[in-house]
Amino acid sequence: MESLILSLFFYWAIIPAVLTQDSKPGAPVHPGQPSNCIAWHTVKQGDDCETVPRRYYITKKEFLAWNPTVSKDCLTNFWLKYAYCVRVDGASAIYTNAKSTTTSNSRKYPVNQGKHNFNHKNALN
Hints:
By secondary structure, the protein is an alpha+beta fold. Helices cover 28% and strands 14% of the residues. It has two domains: 21-91, Membrane-bound Lytic Murein Transglycosylase D, Chain A, CATH 3.10.350; 92-125, no CATH class. The longest helix has 19 residues, at 2-20. Residues 1-20 form the signal peptide.
């Protein structure tokens, strides 16, 4: 039963986030985006500064750091149909082809090794 639950989590929670991120912005962007941004999200109706970071397994603090024109309360420069950075090169990710590691900010996530082979056992630890 546990493996069924983990499989369902993988297909319903992880796959949509992976499939909907873009490697290049698919919409207008604000100035100041990081040059090492490797994944983008175009804001759709219903998105906000809590749901977008959660969808990509990043913190709101990371989202705001990578999108410096967005205000902390997200009332300024968080616009519908604009693209926002949701992953920078070298940032921790939930993908792995190796083992789970602890990042320098003490959050436990598998490390992106360049391949997007999901290891659901490590992601839930």
